[in-house]
Design brief:
alpha/beta; UDP N-Acetylglucosamine Acyltransferase, domain 1; 7-stranded mixed beta sheet; 5-stranded parallel beta sheet; about 25% strand; globular
Length: about 190
């Protein structure tokens, strides 16, 4: 049998070294920290280049591939057992929640080329979004502000703001209307 094509890493030696160091920190200081210690984990992420506020909520069993590609606003949450594969930038807006077992996939491969090179593609999750349990969010997608993506859905294309979206692929099924939202001034 002949040898297949040689595939070299698309990542620099510095990138690979930082991921090894981050893996050690994530597997110890980050992972073993008590659940309420969000500021501690935010500080560790910031030491590795993450653009997260000290009010971000990252739980200890969340798995983050490259913190330097992660941006999180105030009260943005990555729950336990979320896998954030942030090869490209992953941005999570203020007051957004990514629930347990969800997977944010910030890269794909160009399968039309023999070596199938890695193709990083950013993910943008707007403000006030809820990504429910076990949702797959694919590379290069965005989820509009205040949208809810139902459990076990898969996001392969951009989703509009203020919608409830479900399915594989996720599609809007209705508008999201907050029943307890304050009335607008001048409405009547």
């Amino acid at each position: 049998m002949g040898k297949g094509p040689t595939i070299s890493s698309p990542h620099s030696i510095k990138n690979r070294a930082m991921r090894v160091l981050w893996g050690l920190v994530q597997g110890t200081l980050f992972r073993w920290s008590p659940r309420p210690c969000h500021r501690w984990r935010a500080m560790l992420l910031r030491l590795f280049g993450a653009d997260v506020t000290m009010k971000s909520r990252v739980y200890p069993r969340a798995k983050i591939w490259g913190p330097w590609n992660l941006t999180m606003g105030d009260f943005a949450t990555l729950a336990d057992d979320v896998d954030c594969y942030c090869v490209a930038r992953v941005r999570i807006g203020e007051h957004s929640t990514v629930s347990q077992y969800s997977y944010l996939c910030g890269a794909t491969h160009d399968f039309d080329l023999v070596k199938r090179p890695l193709t990083p593609m950013p993910i943008v999750i707007g403000e006030g979004v809820w990504i429910a349990a076990d949702v797959f969010v694919g590379p290069g997608t965005s989820v509009g502000d205040h949208t809810v993506v139902g459990a076990r859905s898969s996001v392969f294309t951009d989703l509009p703001a203020w919608k409830v979206c479900v399915g594989t692929p996720a599609k809007p099924i209705r508008d999201r209307v907050l029943k307890d939202a304050p009335e607008k001034v001048g409405s009547g």
